[in-house]
Amino acid sequence: MSRQRPLRVTLLSVALALLAVPAWTGSAGAVDWWGSVDFVTVKTGWVVSARGSIVKTTNGGRSWIVQHKGGATLMDVCFINRSRGWAVGDPGTTYRTTNGGHTWSKVLVPTSMEYRWLTAVSFYDAFEGRVVGGYPNGDGVATHQPYGSIWWTTDGGKNWTEMAYGTSTPADVDIVSAARGLAVGELRHQPADPDDLGWNSTAQWDCGGMFWAGPIAMPAAYQSGVSGLLAIDLYGAGDLGLAGGYVGGGAPGSAIMLRTTDAGGSWTPVAVPLLTHVRDVQLVTASVGYAVGDGVGRRVLKTTDGGLTWKTKTTPIRAWLHKVDFVTPSTGCVLGEDSHNRLIVMRTVNGGTTWTRIR
Q1: DSSP single-letter state for residue 90
Q2: Is 350 exposed, middle or buried (0-12, 13-18, 19+ CB in 10 A)?
Q3: Less Cβ crowding at N or C end of the chain, within 10 Å?
Q4: pLDDT at position 125
Q5: Average confidence score pLDDT of the chain
Q6: Dihedral of the CA atoms 64, 69, 71, 76 (nearest 10)?
Q7: What are the angstrom distances between the C-alpha of 194 and each of 138, 139, 149, 188, 249?
Q8: Residue 94: CB partners within 8 Å, gap ≥ 6?
Q9: Has domain 11-357 been given CATH number 2.130.10.10?
Q10: Higher-pLDDT residue of 344, 170
Q11: Cα separation, 133 vs 222, whole angstroms
Q12: How many contiguous H segments (helices) and E segments (strands) does the chain have?
């Protein structure tokens, strides 16, 4: 998952989060389907949406403030503290704030980013960051341009340098230091029939600066033409990590989860119940983690053994969930869409036992 490690929170702040959280009210209703969520404490967080809106809460979702409205689709948001954050989207849209979102500045990006669909952003500190993206619907392949790319910055997003990702669709990125991170996506083949698009899993390891090694070899069973990785999350120094996606074209039971304990040197498949795709995954501690995706509605997956096994937690609303964000092992949110394609956010303060809709 493309996020910075959450800030430490006090027992008092956790206790305050146990208060009831009413539904989202006010003009924040402009937020619509898709999007992303990032909380830096149990009370302070942001949501971005496909309508280009950015909203903020400072009370755990009891109320929301609209900080930005309209414009390009926003796909991801990343904050490293209460002040500094970034949001990215399409086409080549990048916003930056240094005052908690009170104002957002549109970042002047290089030509290589202008027409790309930017899918994920991850910053390690106020300076080191990565963004991934590509050409939607295969644009760029016919003109021999890199299908997907990784951009890196060492000055907080003022300037960006492109690193070609290859003939692939990068979906997610996570960095844990200036020299360590992973990007994952779907590898695009060049079949004889230009309409017969093939995909398989790929991962790349950031060795610092402009060099990305890879792709890293996935287990053979997950290198078919209809598989891909959609989410990555690294814990601590990056040795422990989880990557989620799908195999077999998204048929029932085809979700995959891969686990590494050696910084991506090797990957071990683990069983994932119910889902057809894993859309997002997060390790909150070395033991506790959460995942969401497509499949049977109203389900959030939870692990208490570092991703080796997963159990389901039921939410009160049937929804297609595609983002998960926890700031403690017990307090966090999931984001998705209901049957009417409306964005919803649900929150738990007891590790997924019960959930409250906050949007």
Answers
A1: E
A2: exposed
A3: C
A4: 94
A5: 77
A6: -20
A7: 10, 12, 21, 11, 18
A8: 86, 87, 88, 106, 107, 109, 113, 118, 121, 131, 157
A9: yes
A10: 344
A11: 22
A12: 2, 28
- 23, pLDDT greater than 70: no
3-state secondary structure of 294: strand
- What type of residue is 217? A
Residue 53 has pLDDT above 60, yes or no: yes
**What proportions of the chain, in percent to the nearest 5, are helix, strand and coil?**
5, 45, 50
Alpha-carbon Rg of the chain, whole angstroms?
Answer: 19
Quote the DSSP letter at residue 155.
S
Residue at token pair 């644009």: 139
Q: Are 222 and 170 in contact (CB under 8 A)?
A: no
Instruction: Map residue 234 onto helix, strand or coil.
Output: strand
Each domain of the chain, given as residue ranges in start order, spans: 11-357
Band the pLDDT of 48: cuts 50, 70, 90.
very high
**What are the tokens at 257?**
């989860």
- Model's pTM, two decimal places? 0.83
**Which residues are CB-contacts of 29 (< 8 A; sequence separation ≥ 6)?**
none
Q: How far is CA 26 from the centre of its chain?
A: 27
SS3 (DSSP) at 15: helix
Residue the block writes with tokens 């590790």: 351
